[in-house]
Amino acid sequence: MMKKTLLALSLSALALASMAGGIVHNTNQSASFIRMPARDASMGLDGVYYNPAGLTWLKQGFHISVNNQYIVQNRNIKTTFPNLNRSEFEGGVVAPFFPSVYAVYKMDKFAFSFGFNPIGGGGSARFEDGLPSFEMQMASIPAGLNRAGIPTSEYTYETEFEGSSIYYGIQAGASYQVNDILSVSLGLRYVMINNSYEGYLSDIMINPTMPAAGFSGAMVKAPDFFNTMAGLFGALAGTAASLQPLIDGGGANLTLQQAQQAGYLTSEQVASIAGGFRLIDPATDPMTLSLAQIQGGYTLATPGFLQQQDAMSANALATADKKVDAEQTGSGIVPIIGANLKFERLNIGLKYEHKASIKVKNSTSTDDTGLYPDAAETPSDMPSMLSVGAAFDATSKLKVSAGLHYYFDKGAEYGKKLNGEFVKNDKVMDNNFFEIGIGAEYEINEKWLVSLGYLRTQTGVMDIYQSDLSHSLSTNSIGGGLRFMATEKIGINVGVMNTSYLEATRNFPAVEGANPSYTETYNRTNFTAAIGVDISF
User: E strand or H helix at 352, and its extent?
Assistant: First the structure.
């Protein structure tokens, strides 16, 4: 009839996928980055994150930088799966508070630094109409019932879910100036992951037509229909045994009508037995058969009726209202090493972040799906990452910069499953993720500086990685803004960045007895506004 597991409400970390960074990293970690996204050779306070070895070139004393970003992201998913009520699904992500805080104490050849930022995630995604993977399960109900000879053409349901994800990073480090050219740094980042999933799927309704069971094509609750059908098939499975006393009493050769006339069966029993037999053999009129022949037909059909009873009971359970309220938490340590090479007009920054092997653990208050068992663990690594940047003073007022971030995703594990087992990313990725940024800053005067930059990210995931719950897209971003020196020791950075995503499409092959072939197309848009204040004491 239908799949026993008809419905699984599946929530995922659909939180902010930033316009800058790898699949799980955020590299948009300052207002200065938003106005000019090539900061890997930074000599400013955001060097705590981008170029810690370069902090030795700051002035003596204490420095602090406070930044915040307002990020809005829209997600669009289209599907060609047949018979859905809608083919396009929209979701929104808003992160009004995306802070980065840095502090540096420069003393002679040493610089000691501290940083706090959302190193991954940072927002929440809300899909008021669910996702294709939700609705496909609803759309399969009429198709399955039609194949079983129960005409059904419509379905409705109520759903909403919200997923959020945040990876907070707390970083401390020390930098040392070896000579007039070389500086080095060493640091640690403590990463704390918190994911939350909350949603429901309820009031699934269908319009089956089966007069024998009392369904005329009006909309009814799916669990009520399946429970009724489970009871019907259970009764049919017991028909052969119910006729045995009549046959043992000598009524084997009686027809249904004769048994009724003799008072052995009521008219309701005759109608029920005859109606059930027509499900077994629609081409034969049961009123022309003897009770022994009818019992023989029911005996052969009983195993099938019992299977149908089990399937209908499972479908009733699967289409019942479902709710999820779960959190996942985990933590890890990231060692960070860096080097800076400073020449007369050229500065080069290098940084390598080691992988953090992390597992997040479920803390579940409600899980009607069985997908988030309490205390279960899921891999959620932060991969190692290499950054290389260069900044060149083209003139006394104009600086041009470039930077590369390369993420070693294939050596990490993000909780992806194949055949029900967690796998490393090299099973779902062809290439590692990378991004390249270029930019320019022009100092108008001692007070004002303007900047502009471009950032390109390139994903390397395979088609099997992509889904409506979790997908990775390449991007193009343009950012610009300004810096205003309110005083000699207070600088204000303001920037905006717009990101366009490269649409990706996955082809899903047909699965015999389940789904036809179809495609899903994923796209997003992203806009960020940022402000930061740098203060030196």
Answer: strand 346-353
Q: Which two tokens mark 374? A: 């309490």
**Residue 164 and residue 21: Cα distance in Å, rounded?**
18
Query: Quick check: 369 and 324 in contact, CB under 8 A?
Result: yes
Whole-angstrom distance, CA of residue 44 vs CA of residue 534: 9
Residue that is written with structure tokens 């495609």 in the block = 519
Query: From CA 198, how far away is CA 46, in angstroms rounded?
Result: 35
Token code pair at residue 292: 């022994």
**Beta-carbon contacts of residue 271 (< 8 Å; ≥ 6 apart):** none
**Would you say 37 and 453 are in contact if contact means Cβ atoms under 8 Å apart?**
yes
Residue 498's nearest CA partner among 482, 481, 513 is 481
What DSSP line would sit under 237-270, residue for residue?
HTHHHHHHHHIIIIITT-BHHHHHHTTSS-HHHH
Q: What is the pLDDT of residue 18?
A: 53
Coil/strand/helix, residue 17: coil
Cα 16 to the chain's mean position, in Å? 10
* Domains in the chain with CATH codes: 31-137+160-199+326-536 (2.40.160.60), 211-317 (no CATH)
86-95, 311-320, 399-408, 422-431: which has the minimum mean pLDDT?
A: 86-95
Per-residue pLDDT at 11 = 43
Element (H, E) at 228: helix 222-237
| Closest of 167, 179, 188 to residue 52, by C-alpha | 188
Phi-psi group of 265: left, alpha or beta (phi > 0 → left; psi -120 to 50 → alpha; rest → beta): beta
**Least confident interval from 64-78, 94-108, 139-153, 175-189:** 139-153
Mean pLDDT of 147-158: 90
DSSP string, 152-177: ---EEEEEEEEEEEEEEEEEEEEEEE
When pLDDT is averaged across residues 221-232 and rounded to a whole number, the result is 95
How does pLDDT run across 38-96, given as a tens digit for each residue? Answer: 999 999 999 999 999 999 999 999 999 999 999 998 889 999 998 888 899 888 778 88
Q: Which two tokens mark 380?
A: 């959620």
132 in Cβ contact with 79 (< 8 Å): yes
DSSP string computed for 82-143:
TT-S-SEEEEEEEEEEEEEEEEEEEETTEEEEEEEEEEEEEEEEEETT--HHHHHHHHHHHH
Q: Kindly give, in sequence order, each residue whose CB lies less than 8 Å from that of residue 484, ignoring residues fewer than 6 positions away.
A: 447, 448, 449, 491, 492, 494
